[in-house]
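User: Modeling request: complex.
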Amino acid sequence: MSLLIVGTVAFDTIATPFGKADMVVGGSAQYGAYAASYFVNSINLVSIIGDDFPQSELDELRSRGVQLEGLKVVDGGKSFFWEGKYHDNMNDRDTLITDLNVLADFDPVLPDSYKNSEYILLGNLTPDIQISVLEQLDVKPKLVMLDTMNLWIDIARDSLMKAISMCDVLTINDEEARMLSGEHSIVQAAAKILEFGPRYLIIKKGEHGALLFDQDNVFFAPAMPLDRVTDPTGAGDCFAGGFLGYMAKTGDISFDNMKRGLIYGAAMASFVVEDFGNHRIKRVTQADIKERIIRFIKLSQFTI
Amino acid sequence: MSLLIVGTVAFDTIATPFGKADMVVGGSAQYGAYAASYFVNSINLVSIIGDDFPQSELDELRSRGVQLEGLKVVDGGKSFFWEGKYHDNMNDRDTLITDLNVLADFDPVLPDSYKNSEYILLGNLTPDIQISVLEQLDVKPKLVMLDTMNLWIDIARDSLMKAISMCDVLTINDEEARMLSGEHSIVQAAAKILEFGPRYLIIKKGEHGALLFDQDNVFFAPAMPLDRVTDPTGAGDCFAGGFLGYMAKTGDISFDNMKRGLIYGAAMASFVVEDFGNHRIKRVTQADIKERIIRFIKLSQFTI
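Assistant: Request completed. Predicted assembly structure:
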């Protein structure tokens, strides 16, 4: 099953209580592609970079089955750059620098070979770009997952509402769910957001796990308690990539299978945070994943 | 199996975004006793009140098998009073008034009939009182659970460390775990606290659930996502009472059975927050509990 991932490929400079990493490779599409690559080997990546991006990183992605035909390289351009500093609690962070660079003019054109992708992961970009990608598809995809952020709720609400109405699975964090719905209760927020169009809603709560809602059901996937979280950057993207990669691998979009997808997503998120940037998520093995899933079972399963 | 509960029986005035309740019945021992009464009918309560406490409330507790021989009534005294106001997020609250009243001189003397209790719930009181209760027991109990708070970590650390070393299950919230251990990571905090003596540690995270640790295992019990949380007061006490009530009912203190106990505790907590004070926790039925446990199973169980 083919998986299309649209998002950023970028450089990040990240400071956490455990150290600092300068100009490491980041970006939502990059993280999502790595996480998904453990489940499917037909990933169509859509993004934009400058000619400052290391070829070795692109080769590494390609070696994992990530198609780069839709990755636009701008000659003489600089890749998107973000610099941030995490607070001691690791849940909050300050953005110090956001240089959009080539991302400022990103207007993705899907290669023909991408247009029949079945699973679509729309990383956090402007809602107009997300809509444009969906409108370029030749066939109705099996599952469209959309990530967004508070900025678009604030400044592009109409476009965002249209994008949300076109997706099957919306993924946002708890504060964004409250902003988007105007409801404080997460349950009431979820009910309201499901009326906006998506069949499923995933509310991410960082170290406190994630909730999956549809009209009739709610499922909670815990986050793995870890000895140390070195760098939370990319956790949400790896969660989404792992989830949708698992969906694409299994081809089963029932609520019960989505539960499993959430656990696999939570597992991929639990790896990426163990080191700065993509250092850990690149080095995961199938044995690591199997072992981590067993830890999730021990963490959350009981008999009554 | 007999369950001894030591803690407060009190009046609370509570303001939340959903309303205000004046002088409702509260207190850790009162909440714990109600929650436990759905599992065992031999509960030995130890607390202190003034003669201002309504007889009907005492009759109600007694009708559920709660022994009140250890409840000291001070003639002409006033019961402990707490007034608080919850923030919009319901996780934070400001204490407006704390009138210790008769609690200021509380020095519990265990009735002889209590001294062979097998399960002990030491609600949040001064560590010296908690130690004194344990020292009055005639036989070594099967399981001692101790609740505490940031105040005692701050001002009575030596006594608290002694009390902790005498308990089997310590229950504290995530911020208190960080204070007590000096570790930010919850996993590292838990490892350090287990070295202080308790075999088990329960870290409560309010609406984000609770974690149970021993040396080798960790289990996560989610909180039930609710349409509305009307009043969080008593949630931790009902969690503890439900947990230890289930332990006492089953008589099985294995880690696997503690998992079930945590789920029953989370269920009792999910009831009490549905209304002010003890209004809801008094009216729970066995059918309600069964239905709520099924919701917990649906919420958190998956197959891989």
